[in-house]
Amino acid sequence: MRHTLPIAPQFYVTAPQPCPYLEGRMERKLFTALQGEYATKLNDSLSKQGFRRSQNVLYRPSCAECSACLSARIRVADFKPTRSQRRTIRRNSHLKRESTSPWASEDQYELFRKYLDSRHADGGMADMDIFEFAAMVEETPIRSRVVEYSQPGSGRARGELAAVCLTDVLDDGLSMVYSFYDPSHHRSSLGTYVILDHVRIAQEAGLPYVYLGYWVPGSSKMNYKAQFSSVEIYSQGSWRDLGDPDSYSAWTHPLSTDPIAEQVAQINLPDSRPITGT
């Protein structure tokens, strides 16, 4: 009898650095490489456990004295848009959506720079050049798409690019890795529209969830995620309804997170290699 056993991925922890969401706090991430033949299975499994993808890395916040960051997803079957969100859908119904393979373009980068300079000039991506942008879009070992939204053009020509979302296709939903849009059209609520349209794409594809990234109570940057119905958050090892956003607090305590070794031990890994016998 001969068996081929799974090879468990190795997990690491980043050095502490200033938190981009809550002032005066330090963030730390637990991460592992996403590569090889079983990258898709690993990404599907860990996404259900609060991890996010960045290029060929999967990460999850693992701060020493803070557990404010909560992975969020929309339960598609129960989603109902608000009156304001229905207006947003109508306001942007003229936009043309096109889904392509993960390939970066100059038009995307120009819009990306415009978005950063307007909304996140002091953020961690502020100095990203076109080569780093291309790596963010193109370096993916799993099934990813670039979803573009454009203004109407003349004839067959595409109009001006309005919004872009780098999207991963999981076995149970769509994961919105990173989105950006034209800040000069702030009245159009393009960021909200891109999320609403991804809910529609998931509905059409029969996928139950749209993963939004992290929701952080106390962070004004993340408030918009709580405005969608049927949002679930991943907390203490399971998904549950968000409920009342005001009932959460971004408190800190030295016992609010488990030690790294315990966190890793609690991660459920897929069978990365089949067990065979002769």
Write the layout of secondary structure elements.
Blueprint: E1 11-13, E2 17-18, E3 26-27, E4 29-33, H1 39-47, E5 52-54, E6 57-61, E7 70-75, H2 83-91, E8 96-100, H3 106-119, H4 130-138, E9 144-150, E10 161-169, E11 173-181, H5 190-205, E12 209-215, E13 231-235, E14 238-241, H6 260-265
Care to give the gist of this entry?
With 278 residues, the chain is of the alpha+beta class. 23% of the residues lie in helices and 26% in strands.
Give a structural overview.
With 278 residues, the chain is of the alpha+beta class. It has a domain at 73-235: 3-Layer(aba) Sandwich (Aminopeptidase), CATH 3.40.630. The chain has helices at 39-47, 83-91, 106-119, 130-138, 190-205, 260-265, and strands spanning 11-13, 17-18, 26-27, 29-33, 52-54, 57-61, 70-75, 96-100, 144-150, 161-169, 173-181, 209-215, 231-235, 238-241. Mean pLDDT is 88; it is low at 1-5 and 272-278.
